[in-house]
């Protein structure tokens, strides 16, 4: 079943399942015996991180961070952390987010974690929009590439809605003019 507000599906539920299995298996191989710390960026990371971890077959710990690059309704490019940083001293961190666009959010968070003493910070995103990039940042793990269009579902929101869709898709025009 497809939500009535969706005009097309960009990544299907089945494709997502294969992506998370591939990434989780790869991370397990790469980090064998190393006890990484997964840090998810709320709220977009929730379905992705939860599914990914089912395939992470190594000892690890989890944390979450809430970050915002918005001051009111304007994007400032200044990233603020709500509720403080997790303890990352000497840890090998794997940062999890839904999508990498300009790269400003993950770049800022990565720098904060390195400054806080993380041994390494590796980035894992479900989706990458390479055309949107404004800073030089390369994720180690990428589920898939999407063109420069706004997608929702599987953690990705439009005004906080649609995060619960089990697939990723593009909204119909009528949704924006409501
Ligand atoms: P950036 O890489 O530009 O700093 O920001 C990435 C964040 O912007 C993502 O975590 C996500 O919250 C939001 N974002 C970027 N592209 C999209 C998109 O196509 N759809 C949705 N729903 N959010 C997006
Ligand atoms: Mg986000
Ligand atoms: Mg959002």
UniProtKB/TrEMBL annotation:
One of its GO terms (molecular function) is magnesium ion binding. InterPro entries: HGPRT, Hxn_phspho_trans, PRTase-like, PRTase_dom. It catalyses: IMP + diphosphate = hypoxanthine + 5-phospho-alpha-D-ribose 1-diphosphate; GMP + diphosphate = guanine + 5-phospho-alpha-D-ribose 1-diphosphate. It comes from the Bacteria. The keyword Ligase does not apply. Its main location: cytoplasm. Residues 14-158 form the Phosphoribosyltransferase domain. Belongs to the purine/pyrimidine phosphoribosyltransferase family. It is found in: Cytoplasm. Pathway: Purine metabolism; IMP biosynthesis via salvage pathway; IMP from hypoxanthine: step 1/1; Purine metabolism; GMP biosynthesis via salvage pathway; GMP from guanine: step 1/1. One of its GO terms (cellular component) is cytosol. SUPFAM superfamilies: PRTase-like. Its EC number is 2.4.2.8. CDD domains: PRTases_typeI (cd06223). The keyword Cytoplasm applies. GO terms for biological process: GMP salvage; guanine salvage; hypoxanthine metabolic process; IMP salvage; purine ribonucleoside salvage. This is Hypoxanthine phosphoribosyltransferase. The lineage of its organism: Bacteria, Bacillati, Mycoplasmatota, Mollicutes, Anaeroplasmatales. Its cofactor is Mg(2+). It holds the Pfam family Pribosyltran. Keywords: Cytoplasm, Glycosyltransferase, Magnesium, Metal-binding, Nucleotide-binding, Purine salvage, Transferase.
């Amino acid at each position: 079943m497809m939500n009535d507000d969706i005009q097309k599906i960009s990544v299907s539920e089945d494709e997502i399942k294969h992506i998370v299995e591939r990434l989780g298996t790869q991370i397990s191989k790469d980090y064998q015996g190393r006890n990484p710390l997964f840090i998810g960026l709320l709220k977009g990371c929730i379905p992705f991180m939860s599914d990914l971890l089912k395939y992470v077959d190594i000892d690890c710990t989890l944390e979450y961070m809430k970050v915002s690059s918005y001051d009111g309704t304007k994007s400032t490019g200044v990233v603020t952390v709500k509720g403080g940083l997790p303890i990352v001293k000497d840890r090998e961190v794997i940062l999890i987010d839904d999508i990498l666009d300009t790269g400003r959010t993950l770049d800022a968070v990565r720098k904060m974690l390195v400054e806080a003493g993380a041994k390494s910070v590796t980035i894992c995103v479900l989706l990458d929009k390479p055309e949107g990039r404004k800073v030089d940042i390369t994720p180690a793990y990428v589920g898939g590439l999407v063109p420069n269009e706004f997608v929702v579902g599987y953690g990705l929101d439009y005004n906080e809605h649609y995060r619960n869709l089990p697939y990723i898709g593009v909204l119909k025009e009528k949704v924006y003019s409501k």
